[in-house]
Amino acid sequence: MSVERLAAAIRAAAGRRGLRSGTDAARVRKWQRGGVAPNEESQIYIAEALGLPADIVRADDWPNWIPVPADGVVPLGPYSSVPALREALRTAMDRRDFLTITGAALSAVAADCAASPAAALAQTHGEKPIDDDLVAALENTTRHFAALATEQRQHTTTLLDALLSTVTDVLEHGRYTPTLGVRLHHLAATLSQTVAWHSFDQGRHTHASQTWIAGLHNAHAAGDHDMGAGLLSDLAYQLAWRSDHTAATQILDHALTRATHPAARCLLELRRARALAAQGDRTEQRAVLRALAAAEQHLNRAGSDRPGWCAWVSEADLAVDSGQALLDLGDTARAHQLITEGERLLPAARDKTRGVFLAYRAASYLDLGEPEPAAAAARESLLLARRIGAPRCLRLVNDLLPRFQPHTAAQGVPELLQAAAA
Length: 422
Hints:
- The chain has helices at residues 3-15, 25-33, 40-49, 81-94, 103-115, 132-146, 150-153, 157-173, 178-201, 205-222, 225-241, 245-256, 262-278, 285-301, 315-329, 332-345, 351-367, 371-388, 391-404, 413-421; strands at 128-129, 174-175.
- By secondary structure, it is an all-alpha fold.
- The protein has 4 domains: 1-62, no CATH class; 76-259, no CATH class; 261-346, no CATH class; 359-422.
């Protein structure tokens, strides 16, 4: 709906009540830019003009009460960063996990991001001055929680949600310099990525999607192409987890057009290789091998000065993801060798990843017809996941349990099944 049509519809809504509204296109544009908020009466007219019930209006929460489009995704734009954050926070609050954002909708977001230049920062109109000390405190607090051991991070979900809500309020209502604005948008993107991974690990996929999307909007606002590409790759990873490998590949193709840092490109190529291999199309074998070779080359050039969100990418990830891709291609022996090597190389601090890698190793042993070491790896993964609070890892192990049923006489299998049932 154009601003002219919306203004006319608002005047018509007032006219049906025997009243007059002076709303014109210029006033609608002021509302859109965020410098002026419509009064409660005008918001009721806006709801009616958009075909929404009047009781949806919350005058003190303009414009966040307006629902997102039918596909569930806030469109990318110069003023979209705060509405996207609000949508993610609302999804967390009312647990709307029965909604699903489709792969097609996420692919469209990726295409928009790939085609759009970095958004100019929206002019701040808030009345509450924000200074460097507050932004630094928020940044330091975020880094502190992100640096906690995996076992401790399971207790920080509520605190991280509160931090993200605080940063959103500061962005929306604060008055700050353009330099601080860039830092705040980058902080919102970083926090969104962390919160989204927590939700994803807990199986709350809709909240994870909305929060990654909110991070994407803020990375776009901050002009951080690499981080935007990383957030797209997280969405692709989620789609691959939900077995939508075609949409995952499409998103990663878009993300690779924006990523520049070798570590970022390594991660994207690894995930692309996994998504291509999982499609089960043997004609894609060469594309998978090319992606794995590209990932290795990028990792060799990555160096130590990396963006924080992909600083963890290592030889261990290269080995295990390569092994998983080769497993899908049917190269079982080589896949098992790489997965075992990657699990051995993994730093002790990455317990959650270790649990996932152990589950992968168990699957590769089963593919080789060796249930005893498979049971040992699966049981270690199960106990580790329970200790650190990693439901996603638990699901990987639980999905393997039916494959152990024909091997109940093998050493370690009864103990695994008993531990899983406990």
